[in-house]
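As described in the Methods, two query proteins were run sequentially through the folding procedure within a single session, without resetting any intermediate state between them. The first query and its resulting structure tokens are shown here.
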Amino acid sequence: MTGSSSAPQDSLCDDPILALADRSDEFEDAILDCFPSTGVVLAIESEQNQLALSACHLCIEHSRVVRTAFAIDAPSSACGVLRLQYEALLRASWLLFAATPAQIEKLGRELTPEAELAAKNLPTAGEMLSKVLAAAPSGLTAHLAEFNEYSRHALNSYVHSGIHPLRRVREGFPVEMAMNLIRISNGLMHMAYRMLANLMGSQRRMDKVTHLYKQFTDCCPMAPSGEASAKS
């Protein structure tokens, strides 16, 4: 994989990135089969849950863009969106487990210049993570903490066109790193769907979504260890 467009593969099935992207699509399709076709219906209708629902949908949207970008040989764009995907999941987690009523009210306002200004005083990503780590279940916090430690700083470089993407454009993007990042993205996506199942209030659905990854270990991230990271 290179940092710029390249010639098409002779055989798409021989391309490990495309194969993993296809497998990731299958993973998401299997998750979607756990949900009603009519969409998510909140067990408890509240501004807090509506905002968390929106943040989960953002995380899932970003995950689709990440694997599509890697599949079309746009790894730098994929890395930038992966950083956004992480923050969408972090925001959803913070809204559910740590946000105060006043903070929820700020994010729930109609989009106006005044509301935008007020929202600038909300916690930073680091502050949100600190609160979430203290309040959320370990099954969620372990993934958020691992990403923050091993991947977030390098991926920030892609958002700001820093040393990482500039070097990768010149030297090429390692295939194994791309595959690790797709798996990490899939893990964040899975956590977002687990959160959606939780918001719907069905224990049966939550259990089904939670354990579905066992059928797709080939396209899911490793257990928290730092091995599948964005370090370079």
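Immediately afterward, the second query was submitted; its sequence and tokens are:
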Amino acid sequence: MSERELRRAIRQADFLGLPTGPAVEVDGTRSELERRFLWLCLRYRLPKPTVNMRVGSLTVDFCWISRQLVVETDGWQAHRGKAAFEDDRDRDLKLRALGFDVIHLSYRQIFERPDEVIAVIQPLLTSGLRAP
């Protein structure tokens, strides 16, 4: 098994609540897209977000609670179609009602345009600005 396959299996076991052993560190991500975004945060020295955190009745991909900022990493497979579109808008309204700003990032943005992603998120975390 490759290292990537092993990491994926460990993350899936953690997600399902299965024991992974004391020597295994799990970052809380549930997908390669989430893992890549977390890696970007570390690479660009952003404050570390809480991963897959409960906010009200929702679980959000990444949250900086002190800044009331949520980042959702939206892969096409999980977010395609009319129902997913409507559900995402509903989630955004609920999060806004709780006082959170929400930024949605696609696979392409995270993997191919990380500098643009960081250029938007970094000021929100360091200056106290709010997302538009």
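Residues 1-27 form one domain. We note this only descriptively and draw no conclusion about the first query from it.
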